[in-house]
Amino acid sequence: MCMAETVGVVNLALGTLVRPTSILVVGATGTLGRQVVRRALDEGYEVRCLVRPRPAPADFLRDWCAIFVNVDLSKPETIPATLVGIHTIIDCATGRPEEPIRKVDWEGKVALIQCAKAMGILKYVFFSIHNCDKHPEVPLMEIKYCTEKFLQDSGLNHIIIRLCGFMQGLIG
């Protein structure tokens, strides 16, 4: 399951100066992502948000003065331009139940990590799931664990935070 194919990314010139306050939040409209965006803006960070292209845009991000870009993680060619000028990626994303889990949460994250490496991103923060290594029978947990391993092997400066589950699907 944890085997990743290399996505064709161009190794752009490393060393471009970026402000340490420039961050990209992946999954900015989700339960966790919107909290990260709000807090980062309140603390003075320059926040760019990666959001899925969809008919109902995330107007609240615009109202908060965050910049958002529509990117489809299942289309790796849409990722590199989003990373220009970014110091830190904060990855809060998880696919929606109606999306193919492998396409977004595994292939999309592999492409994102590979692009981050190629673009010289200085820090990658990945939100994973508590005990994901103990439950390979649960597809999302297995993918989160595999993503952790892929990120660790990438050589990127990274932080992995394992959170307990969100229950928004159960709370009306």
Q: What's a quick, concise take on this entry?
A:
Its main location: plastid. The protein is an alpha/beta fold and 172 residues long.
The name of the CATH architecture is 3-Layer(aba) Sandwich
Task: Specify the structural class.
Answer: alpha/beta
Largest sheet: 6 strands, parallel
The CATH superfamily is identified as NAD(P)-binding Rossmann-like Domain
- Please report the total strand number as a whole number: 6
Query: Which series of helices and strands comes N to C?
Result: EHEHEHEHEHE
Class in CATH?
Answer: Alpha Beta
Count up the helices: 5
Shape, principal axes of CA atoms: globular
Roughly what fraction of the amino acids lie in strands? 15-25%
- Using only CA atoms, what is the Rg? 15 Å
The domain count comes to: 1
What name is given to the CATH topology? Rossmann fold
Helix content: 25-40%
Low-confidence region ranges: 6-13
Average pLDDT: 86
Strand order of the largest sheet: 3-2-1-4-5-6
Please report the distance between the alpha carbons of the first and last residues.
Answer: 34 Å
Keywords: Photosynthesis, Photosystem II, Plastid
Domain NmrA-like: 22-157
InterPro entries: HCF244-like, NAD(P)-bd_dom_sf, NmrA-like
Subcellular location: Plastid
Structure in words:
With 172 residues, the chain is of the alpha/beta class. Helix content is 33%, strand content 19%. The chain is built from 5 helices and 6 strands. A 6-stranded parallel β-sheet has the order 3-2-1-4-5-6, sandwiched between helices. The chain starts with 21 loop residues before the first strand and ends in a 9-residue tail after the last strand.
